[in-house]
């Protein structure tokens, strides 16, 4: 009896994996058919390489696969509702209030705020049911965020085929990307380490980004789709930016877990938070992953710079501060792995590292000028 149930469950799981792969391939083929004339060989390789990467990630992490299936199904449904007319986002009820890009992104913001409030309520009340709801709300926020970005991608082509581009080209879009990547990283570790109490800390930095998105939308009115500046009209952007933000998200996750570690070391909320050894391991894993992807992004950025500006390195403020961030975390990992350093010193270091990283990402855009000035506030 048990063997039959196990085989049935395994068959269902494999069927689900095949469905997931078919959905990803279908989306890629649809994009290739519709926009083939605007894609070069590199962009086609990136497109189908992404199918392979997301397939592997979905097969490795079932929760991600469920989110992505809902994302693609809902996004394709939203695209059909447009019927090729951008003004339908104000005419069709579901688009206007739920799944146009702006509506979906606003729902993402709402659910991230609710998640933070519920995580803190669950932490202070030591209520696992509230933790579960908060975790579910975080997944829903991720769902809406990805729908928003994919639909925005389609909307950009409705504005004009020469305007259309992947939505990771300005501060508004990359802050959404930051929220999504950081949330996915947290949800993965939450499931792996059973650490839902940490959501109260990690969602703080995500909601800080939500605050920026709202300010950028309602105060600066900078949420509209704009044509790419010449320097960004490159296939390198499609891999450099996501790699960079996996790094940023990992470093941010490590910093917020460090806050939990420091609070726990003061014997505050110790009965609610994971043990110090778990927190220490999570900080290390997050920084190690972030460092790998930030290194890849830096190398890709140098190649992109050589193509766009004729040189791999020009000591532009953005490049200089990227090097400072890289050296900071290289030193952190050196002391953690080689010197065997542990404890509060590394936690404080990870927290200070977030300040350095934030300046490299946002402060340079605010206070310094250079080749990357297209990202100014």
Radius of gyration: 21 Å
Helix share bin: over 70%
**Which structural class should the secondary elements be placed in?**
mainly alpha
> How many distinct folded domains?
2
The count of DSSP E runs of length 2 or more, i.e. the number of strands, is 0
CA(first)-CA(last) distance: 63 Å
As an assembly, this protein is: single chain
Unreliable stretches = none
Strand content: under 5%
User: Count of helical segments?
Assistant: 13
Overall geometry comes to globular
Can you give the mean pLDDT?
89
Describe the structure using short key phrases.
mainly alpha, globular, 377 residues
Report on this model:
The protein is built from 13 helices and no strands. It is mainly alpha-helical and about 375 residues long. It has two domains: about 60-230, no CATH class; about 245-375, no CATH class. α12 packs antiparallel against α13 (about 345-365).
Which secondary structure elements does this structure contain, and how are they paired or packed?
Blueprint (H helix, E strand, L loop, with lengths): L1 H34 L5 H20 L1 H21 L5 H4 L1 H7 L1 H25 L2 H32 L11 H23 L5 H20 L18 H29 L10 H34 L7 H21 L6 H24 L10
């Amino acid at each position: 009896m048990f063997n039959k149930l196990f085989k049935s469950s395994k068959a269902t799981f494999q069927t689900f994996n095949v469905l997931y792969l078919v959905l990803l391939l279908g989306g890629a083929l649809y994009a290739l058919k519709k926009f083939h004339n605007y894609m070069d060989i590199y962009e086609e390789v990136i497109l189908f390489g992404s199918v392979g990467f997301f397939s592997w990630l979905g097969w490795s992490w079932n929760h991600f696969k469920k989110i992505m299936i809902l994302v693609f199904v809902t996004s394709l449904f939203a695209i059909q509702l447009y019927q090729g007319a951008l003004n339908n986002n104000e005419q069709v009820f579901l688009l206007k209030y739920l799944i146009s890009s702006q509506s979906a992104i606003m729902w993402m913001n709402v659910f991230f705020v609710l998640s933070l409030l519920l995580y803190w309520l669950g932490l202070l009340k030591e209520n696992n049911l509230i933790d579960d709801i908060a975790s579910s709300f975080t997944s829903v926020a991720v769902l809406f965020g990805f729908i928003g970005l994919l639909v925005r991608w389609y909307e950009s082509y409705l504005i004009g085929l020469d305007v259309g581009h992947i939505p990771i080209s300005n501060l508004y879009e990359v802050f959404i990307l930051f929220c999504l990547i950081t949330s996915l990283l947290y949800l993965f570790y939450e499931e792996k380490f059973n650490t839902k109490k940490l959501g109260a800390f990690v969602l703080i930095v995500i909601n800080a980004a939500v605050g920026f998105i709202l300010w950028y939308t309602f105060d600066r009115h900078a949420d509209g789709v704009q044509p790419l500046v010449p320097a960004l009209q490159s296939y390198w952007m499609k891999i450099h930016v996501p790699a960079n933000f996996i790094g940023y998200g990992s470093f941010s996750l490590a910093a917020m877990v460090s806050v939990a570690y420091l609070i726990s070391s003061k014997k505050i909320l110790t009965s609610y938070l994971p043990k110090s050894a778990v927190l220490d391991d999570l900080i290390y894993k997050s920084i190690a992953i972030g460092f790998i992807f930030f290194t890849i992004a830096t190398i890709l950025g140098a190649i992109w710079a050589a193509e766009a500006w004729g040189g791999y390195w020009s000591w532009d403020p953005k490049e200089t501060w990227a090097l400072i961030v890289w050296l900071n975390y290289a030193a952190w990992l050196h002391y953690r792995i080689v010197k065997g350093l542990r404890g509060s010193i590394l936690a404080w270091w990870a927290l200070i590292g977030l300040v350095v990283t934030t300046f490299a990402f946002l402060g340079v855009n605010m206070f310094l000028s250079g080749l990357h000035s297209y990202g100014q506030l």
